[in-house]
Write a structure and sequence with these properties.
two-stranded antiparallel sheet, 12 strands
Length: 534
């Protein structure tokens, strides 16, 4: 199938001169530039710099511009005096002393993230994800109020009414799930913004081709409009986080299209995709086709892909937590909890970094970007009061799980052989005395071999659950190959017999498209299977 030309968000041409007569014109020009998507472009920057020059005076303008993260879009530095949140505050910047870091009245611009929840899986997981993010911010209030505020600013924003809403866009081709989330969130401390939701009764028939080639054309303008509107409410957009399934038609097809659209619109924010893979026994007859096409199309436009499995979450709940029959809510909670733990801000320079920095650390080679999620301890929170964990034991168990490619803590054994297919790992340590690990030899504590790859630590004293200490990690390692190879093998057998291929061909997705995705995925698998996959 010929590559389709995607619609892009058009931007107005640059101008060579700016109005200088009245301050209101300057403000209007800046707001128009920002509204057109030029938050980090030359128009917004030029208008903002001119505002500083007029209001603060030419003598102090150059100095104050470097101190104003709002006007210079945070390019100077995360300064101790990062306080200016509005143009009017620049006028008195030369007479006022700079506010303290994390000031409640004038916080530094947070590297914010916009989440796209796509399809039934993406929306139900997204609701559990934001609920967990909100809980973790609340738990940080007592230990570190500044950190709690930082966590909220990254994932939530406040409306004029004072209501906290997620920085999110909700997409689905069946309205039932989205409408339920919009209604349920009104009864919580936070709620989704109904203006950021698209839910039309179109359906995708569990077919990647329908979501990618058909529904995307009908929904493209609405997606662009809502993403742009949400982006205009950020001071410093760090990343897009796309939550979707690899199996369903909307999640896989529309999720692939939306990620391509984001890359065309603005390549600067990182694009992080969290893909949920179905049970090994199968949920949809063509789920392997959909997953193969998703992985192939995301390879060039996603900066990092977190591969989650319903099967793994179910195994942790049943074998580790003794849940007899896990519900959908419990599955989503088990996936969302460690994901929120590892992506939430922490203390120190690494903790303040955003998703863009994490993706660059974990995926230095753009050919290998499959990430796996790990967490310890895997115990029931009801048993937390009877359990005391120490960091040394937690870190050693976590390192064994990563090196043995064993996501269940109870199955990781000190006597089992460990592999060397680990490229990079970002570990989040949250809880009592986590700060005391600063400056210590983490490799020695976790008993990591020299072949264990690069490890980076994010820590905070604030707990993320009722457990006193928790660890979660994202790793770029060969475990992702185990997940993908099952998809590839089953897809290959079906393609050889041309099973169900006609359902895709009538929407313009033929054998050539499958062959291209298959080739791309196989190339990535081969790269991971190289020792060290450098």
């Amino acid at each position: 199938m010929a590559t389709r030309k995607l619609g892009t968000l058009r931007r107005p041409p640059q101008t060579s001169s700016l109005p200088r007569k009245r301050l209101t014109k300057l403000r209007h020009f800046k707001h128009r530039a920002a509204g057109a998507g030029f938050r980090s472009g030359p128009l917004a920057s030029a208008a903002a710099q001119l505002c500083c020059a007029v209001q603060a005076g030419k003598g102090a303008s150059s100095q104050r511009r470097s101190e104003c993260p709002k006007c210079c879009n945070g390019r100077a530095q995360k300064a101790p005096n990062a306080g200016c949140r509005a143009l009017s505050s620049c006028a008195t910047a030369s007479q006022q002393s700079p506010p303290k870091p994390h000031s409640n009245t004038s916080p530094a611009p947070e590297m914010t993230v916009i989440t796209l929840q796509i399809g039934q899986c993406g929306n139900t997981l997204g609701a559990a994800w934001f609920a967990e993010l909100w809980r973790q911010a609340e738990r940080a209030e007592g230990a570190d109020p500044a950190l709690a505020a930082q966590r909220r600013r990254r994932w939530f924003r406040r409306k004029r009414s004072g209501e906290s809403v997620p920085r999110a866009v909700l997409l689905d081709t069946e309205p039932k799930v989205v409408q339920r989330l919009l209604g349920a969130s009104r009864r919580c401390e936070w709620g989704y913004d109904a203006g950021g939701a698209i839910c039309e009764a179109l359906g995708s028939g569990n077919n990647w081709a329908v979501g990618y080639a058909m529904q995307s054309a009908k929904l493209r303008e609405g997606i662009e409009e809502r993403v742009r509107a949400e982006a205009e409410k950020t001071d410093q957009l760090d990343a897009f986080h796309v939550l979707h399934s690899s199996a369903g038609g909307t999640g896989s097809g529309l999720g692939s299209f939306a990620t391509e659209m984001l890359a065309d619109w603005d390549p600067n924010p990182a694009r992080l995709n969290t893909l949920v893979f179905p049970y090994h026994s199968g949920e949809v007859i063509v789920q392997n086709y959909n997953a193969l096409l998703s992985l192939g199309h995301l390879q060039d436009v996603s900066d990092a892909m977190i591969l989650l499995e319903n099967q793994t979450a179910s195994d942790i709940l049943t074998a580790g937590l003794q849940v007899e029959k896990p519900t959908l809510q419990q599955l989503n909670g088990e996936l969302a909890r460690p994901l929120a733990t590892v992506l939430n801000p922490g203390d120190g320079p690494e903790g303040s970094d955003g998703l863009h920095s994490a993706a660059a650390f974990l995926c230095p080679n753009p050919a290998t970007k499959w990430l796996s999620l790990w967490s310890v301890p895997q115990t029931k929170e009801s048993s937390a009061m009877f359990t005391r964990n120490n960091w040394t034991g937690l870190l050693r168990r976590l390192s064994l799980m990563v090196q043995q490619r064993q996501p269940l803590e109870m199955r990781a054994s000190p006597t089992a052989p460990v592999g060397n297919g680990v490229r990079a790992v970002q570990v989040a340590l949250h809880g009592d005395a986590a700060g005391k690990l600063a400056g210590k030899d983490f490799q020695a504590i976790a008993e990591l071999p020299e072949t264990a790859g690069a490890w980076r630590i994010v820590r905070s004293e604030a707990p993320t659950s009722n457990v006193d200490r928790t660890c979660a990690a994202l790793s770029n390692c060969q475990y992702g190959v185990q997940v993908v190879e099952r998809i590839v093998e089953k897809s290959e057998r079906m393609l050889q017999s041309r099973a169900y291929l006609h359902q895709y061909e009538k929407y313009g997705v033929g054998s050539d498209t499958f062959a291209e995705s298959y080739s791309r995925v196989q190339q990535v698998v081969a790269r991971y299977e190289d020792v060290g996959f450098a």
